[in-house]
Amino acid sequence: MPEATLVDCYNKGCGKKFDATSNSTEDCQYHPGPPFFHDAYKIWNCCNKKSTDFGTWLSYPGCTKGRHSNEKPVDIVKVAAVKEIRPEKEEDVIVWNGLNKPAERRDETSREEKSITIETTDGAKAAIQRYLEEHQSETSNELQIGAPCRNNSCKSSYCGPSESHSPCVHHPGVAIFHEGMKYWTCCKKKTSDFQSFLDQIGCEKGEHCWSKNEKVDKLREDFYSANGTITVNLYCKGAMPDEVSVESDGQSMRVKLVHGFGTKESTFVYDLWGEIIPEESKARIGERKVELILKQVDNVKWPRLQFDIAQDAQIEA
In this entry, which stretches build a coiled coil (predicted)? Predict the structure, then answer.
């Protein structure tokens, strides 16, 4: 067919030329959903196909079939001769231009810590039920050799019932992260270095509190801003809904997770870059991650999840 009689298809992911006189519902293979760019990933929202390479992402075949269309959407903005983008509505776009400032740090005595609502997906509930049924015979309440002590900053491990253990040297208080400083409420030795904070020797002696679970100090995580919320993803399988707690006073947040279908536990404390509304926030437990959906006080983009005294002092200066 002569090239002059063919027109361009503007459906996303297609880009072919077609004959407008013979255009059936099976001719065009395209992506009906909008593109989404996050953490260097290019993603099609309709089928969740993603890649960090722009060319690879563009080459993904469409996930839906339909008719070709030679009508340009009215909201397409030409950036260059070979580039086009579809902008979101202005009120849905959050732009960080380097001038956004962290939330004004309020004294912790003026902040009230509140529990954040926990939700569990049907998929996560089903996965836990399957695991418990398959491993029912393996359940044991006996302490295993090497089990860690739960008390803050205690490095001891369980050596067996016949072994004597040294006293538990620990911090009976709670961790506070405020204006980039980290300290325990029991002794208030402050430091801005996270590793130095973790290495602080306990200030009291007492009894060990042995845990049946493996302690996991680090999980893979990421976060992003969208529509007035900060979403934090903590990647772990088998989080147990009855043993997950998230508490926040608006500027700091404590997360306690029992995951690995009840075999692992993690505790995290965040000194948040901005301020959130705990009552309007929630945590969602999925099969492979725990998603923290935090309602922002101000609809501004966060350059980082946590307040950093070195970087944020320069912004406020």
Answer: none
CB 203, CB 252: distance < 8 Å: no
Count the helices and strands in the chain (H runs, E runs).
4, 23
Q: Per CATH, the architecture of 108-135+212-316 is what?
A: Sandwich (2.60)
How far is 113 from 282, CA to CA, in rounded Å?
A: 14
Separation of CA 308 from chain center: 18
User: Is the overall model pTM greater than 0.70, yes or no?
Assistant: no
Q: How many whole angstroms separate alpha carbon 296 and alpha carbon 251?
A: 10
Cα angle 210, 175, 120 (rounded to 5 degrees) comes to 70
Contact call for residues 44 and 33 (beta carbons, < 8 A): yes
Q: Is the CATH number of domain 3-87 3.30.70.1150?
A: no
pLDDT tens by residue, 96-128 = 445 567 777 666 556 788 999 999 999 999 999
